[in-house]
Design a protein that fits this description.
The chain is α+β, with helices and mostly antiparallel strands. It has two domains: 4-75, Gyrase A, domain 2 (2-Layer Sandwich); 89-233, Cyclophilin-like (Cyclophilin, Beta Barrel), CATH 2.40.100. Helices cover 23% and strands 29% of the residues. It has helices at 26-40, 65-75, 103-111, 115-123, 217-222, 230-233, and strands at 4-9, 12-16, 44-49, 53-58, 89-94, 126-132, 139-142, 157-160, 164-168, 171-174, 179-181, 184-188, 209-214. The strands form three sheets. A seven-stranded mixed beta sheet has the order 5-13-6-7-10-9-12. Helix 1 crosses helix 2 (65-75) and helix 3 (103-111) crosses helix 4 (115-123). The longest helix has 15 residues, at 26-40. Pfam families: CT_C_D (PF02682).
């Protein structure tokens, strides 16, 4: 496959495998990640996958920048997508309600449909985890259907509740902790998305597949969810 190696820093290279975001990229991204981790071995400091790129940070005391580039080229020389390299499957319960997902109404008005239809369309689709970022455990997932795509809020909220599920453009995500944020909120999950006691910390990892499951308020509360309205938490 065609890829480009870009210099990020003296000890950091960016491998650009694709130029556009697509769900079909993931088998290639996972295969490349595995190859690079194995090739760099103890010389690898960090490897960060994203939608179309892999950032490779290496130990300058063990490997020169030229050697790092050569290592990448050799590792990816005969790369093949691994159809069996997909991650884990998750079902994440979500309580879709205006009190915790105020942009549900906005999406319904934009699509000229009902709240129930927006909930159905968001929860009937399987999403792929493309990358982790923003805050620990925040998984960028996609792709939502084009009709549900919505730009980030012009003015981000100063405080978004943990578990809030939202949409930004054709991405969807759930906030693992209280933080500022500008995504369009449509519900809340009781799932613990980031846990320092969990191996890998984050519930979701790049390559995982996620399906949101709509649940009633009672089920949400029984699973440990916090139903405090968003406005009351501001």
């Amino acid at each position: 496959m065609n890829y480009r190696i870009e210099v990020v820093a003296i000890d950091c290279l960016m491998v650009r495998l694709f130029d556009r975001i697509d769900e079909s990229n993931m088998p290639w991204m996972l295969a490349a990640s595995q190859r690079l981790r194995s090739a760099f071995a103890e010389c690898l400091v960090d490897l960060v996958p994203s939608y179309t790129t892999l950032m490779v940070q290496f130990d300058l005391l063990q490997m020169s920048p030229a050697e790092a580039q050569a290592c990448i080229r050799e590792a990816l020389s005969d790369l093949q997508a691994d159809a069996g390299s997909g991650g884990r499957e998750h079902e994440i319960p979500v309580w879709y309600d205006l009190s915790v997902g105020p942009e549900l109404k906005l999406l319904a008005e934009r699509c000229q449909t009902s709240l129930a239809d927006i909930i159905r369309r968001h929860s009937e689709r399987e999403y792929q985890v493309f990358a982790l970022g923003f805050v620990p455990g925040f998984a960028f997932m996609g792709l939502v259907e084009e009709a549900l795509a919505a730009p980030r809020l012009a003015t981000p909220r100063k405080r978004v509740a943990a578990g809030s599920v939202g949409i930004a453009e054709r991405q969807t995500a759930a906030y693992p902790a209280v933080s500022p944020g500008g995504w369009n909120l449509i519900g809340r999950t009781p799932s613990k998305l980031f846990d320092r006691q969990r191996e890998g910390y984050s519930l979701l990892q790049p390559g995982d597949r996620v399906r949101f499951v709509a649940v009633e308020r009672a089920t949400f509360l029984n699973l440990g969810g916090d139903d405090t309205p968003l406005e009351a938490q501001a």
